[in-house]
Amino acid sequence: MSSERQSIRAWCDGCFDMVHFGHANFLRQASKLCDELYVGVHTDEEITKNKGPPVMTLEERIQMVEAVKWVAKAIPSVPYITTLQTLDDYKCDFCVHGDDITLDASGQDTYRYVREAGRLQECPRTKGISTTNLVGRMLLMTKEHHRPATPNVTDGSPYTGSANDTLEVTDEVYRDFLQGKEPKEGDRVIYVAGAFDLFHAGHIQFLEKARAMGDFLIVGLHSDADVNRRFGKNDPIMTLMERSLSVGACKFVDKVLFPAPFIVTQEFLDKIKPSKVVHGMHYRANDDIGLSMYELPKRLGIYEELDSGSALTTDVLVTRIVKNRSLFEERNRKKQEKEKTFLTAS
What we know:
By secondary structure, the chain is α/β, with parallel strands linked by helices. The protein has helices at residues 2-5, 21-31, 44-50, 58-66, 84-89, 112-116, 131-140, 171-178, 201-212, 224-231, 240-248, 266-272, 288-291, 295-300, 314-323, 325-345; strands at 9-14, 36-41, 73-76, 94-98, 120-123, 189-194, 216-221, 255-257, 276-280, 303-306. The strands form 2 sheets. A 5-stranded parallel sheet has the order 3-2-1-4-5. Mean pLDDT is 87; it is low at 149-164.
């Protein structure tokens, strides 16, 4: 197949629920094995049947995958069990998956058919981040993720039960995600800033529209301390590095600055020289701290508010999880038990 096209096309598939740095890093690694990367996304029904209820809808998950800069095409509603027929239908030479395990409802490897046919390649799983871990942070309402990780022994699955792994950011990862380019002479620079916590489809729609306002989009990420001072509770759910890497994977973003100054000053404006300073239209109630960030850009007439067109916010995601707490806790427990059983039998 590859000789006919004179290029190599690889296939990945998954739930891609609450797409985070781990997902993006997997897709980055997969893209290095091919010329084109096609990514299939499972339906809500298939995920619920085989794993448990997803947090995000299929439409939201597709938007997230399409926005990852290493993805050539995202395909919705693909089978949960990867078959040779799927690879052939999309003219893909092979399938790529992490070196962890994914099991179907019966506890069998979902990649068994492509593995047996020699059309599966693996890349290392990204330690220190997972959807299961993020859901746990929200449900426990702790601030442990704001502190440096300490290794801990767990009797759970080495995949689902690995919340204490340390996030590893190599020089290559840093370069591919965060070493942004610089604007060219005459480029209209757009600057946006915020927490961008639990990076989601609402953020994607906002960033796409912000990028369309100019030629070069800079995204500033506020420190964990500034985000917590503004929002309280155990916010941000994701650390500054996790949030920066998630934003850095987005194809609409040209450069990520972190930690960004909470108050936009003249010194900062002189450094980045933006044509516009843009913010979304979603503010939490009584967010006086947030409203103070842009006093100078407002006086200078370069501030603009932008409607993303999406009702999805970080608060909405957290509410979905808290509202269905028992379902997500049971999902995580069953997933870990299936993995332990599979590993014991292997």
